[in-house]
Design brief:
about 350 residues, 5-stranded antiparallel sheet, 10 strands, 3-stranded antiparallel sheet, about 40% helix
Length: about 350
């Protein structure tokens, strides 16, 4: 299995994973053969990528520590909460807490927590999927840092609700396909204060949760908003959610830009350690990131090209590669597996969009 941009799939490719809408209806079932009409249908729905099974990705399994059905159910529940008629004034904190408790249970049951970014989502449902992903990333970071009990639960609830203030921002701004004007950008920035107000009107919402909504765009060097707080002036939970928020945003296709590759995002964010992000928290988060997710096309320093077939949790930049094309550009009749951890002269030089 491998994830492929809809722009690169071919008629006849077979879907490896069932695609659901966030209304919990099936858009396309696993095993479906893609046709030009189906590809166009998915694009119209806002889907930009799909997972396919083909000969070159045979027997490659994309690992996930949160089961697909739990992830789907969680996103559906979050959409229901975020689209409730009362959301612009208050939110059901008890309902969000139940979601978080189930996510915590799921994460703690996992033997190996590696974030591989294999879920398929619609651009139109970005806010709901983003909220769930930010919660998962934040919880993983919190657990790594020793958070537990009420502290961990509050982190999860705050992460899910970090962008709740955006429900008061016009869709014409949030979904604008071109650059925002200065006035529009200032309007978007208000979502932190709007979220703080909404959560202040809500039952079963702790002060920590409200602070996440208000401060998750503050930066360690004081360059953030709304109050230009610096360093330890920013609550720890808000610093964690800030990391998860930026990572998920940059690794996701948006209406106005294409996503960045995970390895590039990791490099970019690490370059901002103790400038934008708390270095200790960032390192705790990045410990669980697959820099080159399973199924990624890569170019080696030898000129050979292949797919990442297995992640190396101890050495993230040296996974196992299924070599498909030799150094002269010829397709191999029989692919070979190359474990970069055993080949010090080999390294990944670039990403290959197969």
């Amino acid at each position: 299995m491998r994830k492929v941009s809809l722009d690169n799939v071919k008629a006849g490719d077979k879907l490896a994973v069932t695609i659901f809408s966030l209304n919990n209806s099936v858009l396309l079932t696993k095993g479906s053969e893609l046709t030009p009409e189906i590809i166009d249908y998915l694009k119209q729905y806002g889907i930009t990528e799909v997972c396919i099974d083909d000969e070159i990705s045979k027997n490659i399994a994309v690992p996930g520590f949160v089961r697909a059905e739990i992830l789907q159910e969680t996103k559906t529940q979050v959409k229901k909460i975020m689209t409730h008629p009362s959301i612009k004034t208050s939110v059901d904190g008890e309902a969000v807490l139940k979601i978080v408790e189930k996510l915590i249970e799921e994460i703690l049951q996992s033997d190996q927590i590696i974030i591989n970014l294999s879920d398929i989502r619609s651009i139109d449902d970005y806010m709901f999927s983003h909220s769930v992903n930010v919660a998962i990333f934040s919880l993983v970071t919190g657990i790594t840092l020793g958070f537990e009990g009420e502290e961990l639960r509050n982190l999860g609830v705050g992460a899910i609700l970090h962008d709740v203030g955006k429900v008061r921002i016009s869709d014409s701004i949030l979904k604008k396909p071109t650059a925002l004007t200065i006035g529009e950008y200032e309007e978007v920035r208000k979502h932190t204060v709007f979220g703080y107000e909404i959560l202040g009107n809500s039952k079963n919402i702790a002060a920590d949760v409200r602070e996440i909504s208000l401060y998750h765009h503050e930066r360690m060097d004081g360059s953030g908003y709304p109050y230009k707080l610096k360093g330890n002036e920013i609550p720890p939970m808000a610093r964690i959610v800030a990391i998860a928020d930026v990572f998920d945003a940059l690794t996701t296709d948006r209406i106005y830009r294409k996503k960045m590759h995970v390895s590039h995002v990791v490099d970019y964010m690490f370059s901002l350690s103790n400038k934008h992000f708390d270095k200790r928290f960032l390192e705790a988060f990045l410990r669980h990131i697959a820099n080159y997710p399973v199924g990624t096309g890569v170019v080696l320093n030898t000129g050979e090209k292949g797919l990442v077939s297995k992640y190396n949790p101890y050495w993230p930049n040296r996974p196992v590669i299924r070599v498909l094309i030799d150094s002269s550009g010829r397709k191999l009749a029989h692919c070979r597996e190359l474990d970069l951890s055993l080949k010090p002269d080999y390294f990944i030089e670039d990403i290959w969009d197969i």
